[in-house]
Amino acid sequence: MVRLGEVLRDNGHRVVFATTKDWSQRLKSLNFGVELMTEETDGVTGDSADANAESANDLLDNSTPLEKALKSMTILLKEFLPLIEKDEPSLKRIINAVKPDVIISDHVLTLPSIAGSGIPWIFSYSSNPLSMDFGYEDKRLPPSILGLSINSDKNLWEVYRQQLKDARKDDWIKYKDWLISNGCPLIPEELQFWSPSPFANIYMFPKELDYTDVRPLPKTFHRFDCMKRSGNEDTFELPDKLKNRSGKLIYLSLGSMGSADVVLMKRLIAILSKSEHKFIVSK
Fold first, then answer.
1. What is the largest CA-CA distance in the chain?
2. In the chain, % of residues over pLDDT 90
Protein backbone atom coordinates (compact mmCIF):
# COMPACT_ATOMS: atom_id res chain seq x y z
CA MET A 1 0.00 0.00 0.00
CA VAL A 2 2.86 2.38 0.73
CA ARG A 3 4.26 1.97 -2.79
CA LEU A 4 0.83 2.53 -4.30
CA GLY A 5 0.52 5.64 -2.16
CA GLU A 6 3.92 6.87 -3.36
CA VAL A 7 2.91 6.54 -7.00
CA LEU A 8 -0.31 8.46 -6.38
CA ARG A 9 1.40 11.11 -4.25
CA ASP A 10 4.22 11.63 -6.75
CA ASN A 11 1.65 12.15 -9.49
CA GLY A 12 0.05 15.05 -7.66
CA HIS A 13 -2.68 13.32 -5.68
CA ARG A 14 -3.42 13.81 -2.02
CA VAL A 15 -3.03 10.48 -0.20
CA VAL A 16 -4.48 9.93 3.27
CA PHE A 17 -4.08 6.69 5.22
CA ALA A 18 -6.70 5.65 7.77
CA THR A 19 -4.59 3.73 10.24
CA THR A 20 -3.76 3.02 13.87
CA LYS A 21 -1.11 4.86 15.83
CA ASP A 22 1.49 2.10 15.51
CA TRP A 23 1.72 2.88 11.77
CA SER A 24 1.19 6.63 11.87
CA GLN A 25 4.78 7.75 12.54
CA ARG A 26 6.17 5.72 9.64
CA LEU A 27 3.51 7.00 7.24
CA LYS A 28 3.97 10.63 8.28
CA SER A 29 7.73 10.31 7.72
CA LEU A 30 6.93 9.36 4.10
CA ASN A 31 4.88 12.55 3.64
CA PHE A 32 1.44 10.97 3.70
CA GLY A 33 -1.63 12.34 5.40
CA VAL A 34 -2.75 10.23 8.36
CA GLU A 35 -6.14 9.89 10.04
CA LEU A 36 -6.14 7.79 13.20
CA MET A 37 -8.77 5.08 13.38
CA THR A 38 -8.85 5.19 17.16
CA GLU A 39 -6.95 6.77 20.02
CA GLU A 40 -6.94 3.53 22.03
CA THR A 41 -3.37 2.77 20.96
CA ASP A 42 -1.94 5.87 22.67
CA GLY A 43 1.48 5.04 24.00
CA VAL A 44 2.14 2.31 21.43
CA THR A 45 5.51 2.87 19.82
CA GLY A 46 6.04 -0.52 18.23
CA ASP A 47 5.54 -1.64 14.68
CA SER A 48 2.57 -3.58 13.32
CA ALA A 49 4.98 -5.87 11.48
CA ASP A 50 6.07 -7.27 14.85
CA ALA A 51 2.46 -7.82 15.87
CA ASN A 52 1.75 -9.60 12.59
CA ALA A 53 4.67 -11.94 13.15
CA GLU A 54 3.53 -12.69 16.69
CA SER A 55 0.01 -13.50 15.49
CA ALA A 56 1.44 -16.14 13.15
CA ASN A 57 2.97 -18.05 16.05
CA ASP A 58 -0.39 -19.64 16.90
CA LEU A 59 -0.17 -21.60 13.64
CA LEU A 60 3.51 -22.53 13.79
CA ASP A 61 3.30 -25.98 15.32
CA ASN A 62 3.78 -29.57 14.19
CA SER A 63 0.22 -30.11 12.98
CA THR A 64 -0.52 -31.05 9.38
CA PRO A 65 -1.14 -28.41 6.69
CA LEU A 66 -4.85 -29.27 6.73
CA GLU A 67 -5.05 -28.94 10.52
CA LYS A 68 -3.30 -25.57 10.35
CA ALA A 69 -5.62 -24.43 7.57
CA LEU A 70 -8.75 -25.41 9.48
CA LYS A 71 -7.43 -23.66 12.58
CA SER A 72 -6.73 -20.50 10.62
CA MET A 73 -10.32 -20.52 9.33
CA THR A 74 -11.65 -20.45 12.87
CA ILE A 75 -9.17 -17.75 13.94
CA LEU A 76 -9.63 -15.30 11.07
CA LEU A 77 -13.22 -14.21 11.57
CA LYS A 78 -13.06 -14.56 15.35
CA GLU A 79 -10.17 -12.08 15.46
CA PHE A 80 -11.11 -9.72 12.63
CA LEU A 81 -14.85 -9.32 13.13
CA PRO A 82 -14.58 -7.62 16.56
CA LEU A 83 -11.89 -5.34 15.11
CA ILE A 84 -13.91 -4.16 12.12
CA GLU A 85 -16.97 -3.72 14.32
CA LYS A 86 -14.91 -1.40 16.52
CA ASP A 87 -13.36 0.44 13.57
CA GLU A 88 -16.52 1.08 11.54
CA PRO A 89 -17.55 4.32 13.33
CA SER A 90 -14.01 5.70 12.91
CA LEU A 91 -13.92 4.77 9.22
CA LYS A 92 -17.26 6.45 8.57
CA ARG A 93 -16.05 9.56 10.40
CA ILE A 94 -12.81 9.67 8.41
CA ILE A 95 -14.56 9.15 5.06
CA ASN A 96 -17.01 11.97 5.86
CA ALA A 97 -14.18 14.27 6.92
CA VAL A 98 -11.70 13.53 4.11
CA LYS A 99 -14.30 13.20 1.34
CA PRO A 100 -12.03 11.10 -0.90
CA ASP A 101 -12.56 10.74 -4.63
CA VAL A 102 -11.43 7.09 -4.45
CA ILE A 103 -11.00 4.66 -1.55
CA ILE A 104 -8.47 1.82 -1.62
CA SER A 105 -9.17 -0.99 0.85
CA ASP A 106 -6.46 -3.45 1.84
CA HIS A 107 -8.64 -5.52 4.19
CA VAL A 108 -9.57 -9.19 3.81
CA LEU A 109 -13.17 -8.52 4.87
CA THR A 110 -15.87 -6.42 3.25
CA LEU A 111 -16.37 -3.15 5.15
CA PRO A 112 -19.84 -1.51 5.10
CA SER A 113 -18.36 1.96 5.55
CA ILE A 114 -16.46 1.57 2.26
CA ALA A 115 -18.77 -0.62 0.17
CA GLY A 116 -21.74 1.52 1.18
CA SER A 117 -20.03 4.92 0.94
CA GLY A 118 -21.20 5.69 -2.59
CA ILE A 119 -17.56 6.47 -3.45
CA PRO A 120 -15.65 4.40 -6.05
CA TRP A 121 -13.42 1.96 -4.20
CA ILE A 122 -10.62 -0.42 -5.08
CA PHE A 123 -9.94 -3.75 -3.41
CA SER A 124 -6.21 -4.31 -2.92
CA TYR A 125 -4.83 -7.80 -2.28
CA SER A 126 -1.26 -8.57 -1.28
CA SER A 127 -1.18 -12.33 -0.90
CA ASN A 128 -0.86 -15.33 -3.20
CA PRO A 129 -3.59 -14.98 -5.86
CA LEU A 130 -4.60 -18.58 -5.20
CA SER A 131 -6.07 -17.35 -1.92
CA MET A 132 -8.31 -14.92 -3.75
CA ASP A 133 -10.70 -17.86 -3.53
CA PHE A 134 -11.79 -16.31 -0.22
CA GLY A 135 -13.69 -13.77 -2.30
CA TYR A 136 -13.50 -14.87 -5.93
CA GLU A 137 -13.68 -18.65 -6.10
CA ASP A 138 -12.86 -20.63 -9.22
CA LYS A 139 -12.96 -24.41 -9.01
CA ARG A 140 -10.41 -24.77 -11.79
CA LEU A 141 -7.86 -24.05 -9.05
CA PRO A 142 -7.15 -25.99 -5.84
CA PRO A 143 -8.30 -24.50 -2.53
CA SER A 144 -5.77 -22.11 -1.07
CA ILE A 145 -3.55 -22.11 2.06
CA LEU A 146 -2.94 -25.88 1.85
CA GLY A 147 0.09 -25.63 -0.42
CA LEU A 148 -1.58 -27.73 -3.10
CA SER A 149 -0.13 -27.79 -6.59
CA ILE A 150 -2.25 -27.15 -9.66
CA ASN A 151 -1.24 -30.71 -10.59
CA SER A 152 -2.37 -32.28 -7.31
CA ASP A 153 -5.20 -34.77 -6.94
CA LYS A 154 -8.33 -32.94 -8.11
CA ASN A 155 -10.56 -35.53 -6.43
CA LEU A 156 -9.48 -34.14 -3.07
CA TRP A 157 -9.93 -30.47 -3.96
CA GLU A 158 -13.67 -30.33 -3.27
CA VAL A 159 -13.30 -32.37 -0.08
CA TYR A 160 -10.73 -29.92 1.30
CA ARG A 161 -12.62 -26.89 -0.02
CA GLN A 162 -15.76 -27.93 1.83
CA GLN A 163 -13.84 -28.67 5.03
CA LEU A 164 -12.37 -25.17 4.98
CA LYS A 165 -15.82 -23.64 4.48
CA ASP A 166 -17.39 -25.76 7.22
CA ALA A 167 -14.69 -24.61 9.65
CA ARG A 168 -15.77 -20.98 9.28
CA LYS A 169 -19.52 -21.48 8.87
CA ASP A 170 -20.73 -20.38 12.32
CA ASP A 171 -18.59 -17.24 12.41
CA TRP A 172 -19.46 -16.42 8.80
CA ILE A 173 -23.17 -16.37 9.64
CA LYS A 174 -22.45 -13.81 12.39
CA TYR A 175 -20.35 -11.81 9.90
CA LYS A 176 -23.14 -11.82 7.28
CA ASP A 177 -25.72 -10.75 9.87
CA TRP A 178 -23.45 -7.91 10.95
CA LEU A 179 -23.00 -6.72 7.36
CA ILE A 180 -26.76 -6.73 6.79
CA SER A 181 -27.46 -4.92 10.07
CA ASN A 182 -25.00 -2.21 8.99
CA GLY A 183 -26.69 -1.73 5.64
CA CYS A 184 -23.84 -3.14 3.57
CA PRO A 185 -24.97 -3.29 -0.08
CA LEU A 186 -22.39 -5.95 -0.95
CA ILE A 187 -22.63 -9.29 0.87
CA PRO A 188 -19.91 -11.87 0.09
CA GLU A 189 -20.92 -15.11 -1.55
CA GLU A 190 -21.83 -17.95 0.79
CA LEU A 191 -19.01 -18.57 3.31
CA GLN A 192 -16.65 -16.10 1.58
CA PHE A 193 -14.74 -13.35 3.35
CA TRP A 194 -14.87 -10.49 0.85
CA SER A 195 -16.61 -9.36 -2.30
CA PRO A 196 -14.71 -8.05 -5.33
CA SER A 197 -15.10 -4.35 -5.95
CA PRO A 198 -17.36 -3.56 -8.93
CA PHE A 199 -14.88 -0.79 -9.80
CA ALA A 200 -11.38 -2.31 -9.66
CA ASN A 201 -9.40 -5.01 -7.86
CA ILE A 202 -5.61 -5.02 -7.75
CA TYR A 203 -3.14 -7.62 -6.61
CA MET A 204 0.61 -8.17 -6.81
CA PHE A 205 2.25 -11.33 -8.02
CA PRO A 206 4.83 -12.15 -10.71
CA LYS A 207 3.16 -12.95 -14.02
CA GLU A 208 5.20 -16.13 -14.43
CA LEU A 209 3.82 -17.56 -11.18
CA ASP A 210 0.22 -16.45 -11.59
CA TYR A 211 -2.72 -18.72 -12.45
CA THR A 212 -4.35 -16.67 -15.21
CA ASP A 213 -3.53 -19.33 -17.80
CA VAL A 214 -5.78 -21.72 -15.86
CA ARG A 215 -8.22 -19.20 -14.42
CA PRO A 216 -8.54 -15.93 -16.37
CA LEU A 217 -9.77 -13.06 -14.19
CA PRO A 218 -12.47 -10.50 -15.02
CA LYS A 219 -11.47 -7.17 -16.55
CA THR A 220 -11.89 -5.46 -13.19
CA PHE A 221 -8.84 -7.36 -11.83
CA HIS A 222 -5.38 -5.89 -12.44
CA ARG A 223 -2.04 -7.52 -11.58
CA PHE A 224 1.24 -5.83 -10.66
CA ASP A 225 4.56 -7.67 -10.55
CA CYS A 226 5.39 -6.04 -7.23
CA MET A 227 4.66 -2.99 -5.09
CA LYS A 228 8.02 -2.24 -3.51
CA ARG A 229 8.25 1.16 -1.91
CA SER A 230 11.19 3.38 -2.80
CA GLY A 231 14.12 3.44 -0.40
CA ASN A 232 16.79 5.97 0.45
CA GLU A 233 19.64 6.92 -1.84
CA ASP A 234 22.21 4.68 -0.14
CA THR A 235 23.92 2.24 -2.45
CA PHE A 236 24.27 -1.40 -1.52
CA GLU A 237 27.55 -3.22 -1.96
CA LEU A 238 27.64 -6.99 -1.98
CA PRO A 239 29.85 -8.49 0.76
CA ASP A 240 33.04 -9.99 -0.65
CA LYS A 241 32.00 -13.52 0.32
CA LEU A 242 29.02 -13.14 -2.03
CA LYS A 243 30.66 -10.98 -4.66
CA ASN A 244 33.37 -13.56 -5.34
CA ARG A 245 30.96 -16.48 -5.73
CA SER A 246 29.60 -17.67 -9.07
CA GLY A 247 25.95 -18.11 -9.92
CA LYS A 248 22.97 -15.79 -9.94
CA LEU A 249 22.18 -13.42 -7.08
CA ILE A 250 18.76 -14.22 -5.60
CA TYR A 251 16.83 -12.30 -2.93
CA LEU A 252 14.42 -14.29 -0.73
CA SER A 253 11.78 -12.81 1.54
CA LEU A 254 8.71 -14.44 3.05
CA GLY A 255 7.43 -11.27 4.68
CA SER A 256 7.03 -10.58 8.39
CA MET A 257 4.68 -13.50 9.04
CA GLY A 258 6.45 -16.09 6.90
CA SER A 259 9.87 -15.32 8.31
CA ALA A 260 8.49 -15.69 11.83
CA ASP A 261 8.58 -19.45 11.26
CA VAL A 262 12.15 -19.98 12.43
CA VAL A 263 12.15 -23.72 11.73
CA LEU A 264 11.04 -23.08 8.15
CA MET A 265 13.64 -20.34 7.65
CA LYS A 266 16.45 -22.60 8.92
CA ARG A 267 15.30 -25.37 6.60
CA LEU A 268 15.20 -23.02 3.61
CA ILE A 269 18.68 -21.67 4.35
CA ALA A 270 20.06 -25.20 4.70
CA ILE A 271 18.63 -26.08 1.29
CA LEU A 272 19.81 -22.87 -0.38
CA SER A 273 23.32 -23.29 1.01
CA LYS A 274 23.75 -26.30 -1.29
CA SER A 275 22.87 -24.31 -4.39
CA GLU A 276 25.36 -23.03 -6.95
CA HIS A 277 23.75 -19.60 -6.64
CA LYS A 278 24.16 -16.87 -4.01
CA PHE A 279 21.36 -15.60 -1.82
CA ILE A 280 20.37 -12.67 0.32
CA VAL A 281 17.70 -13.81 2.81
CA SER A 282 15.41 -11.36 4.61
CA LYS A 283 14.68 -12.54 8.14
1. 63
2. 56
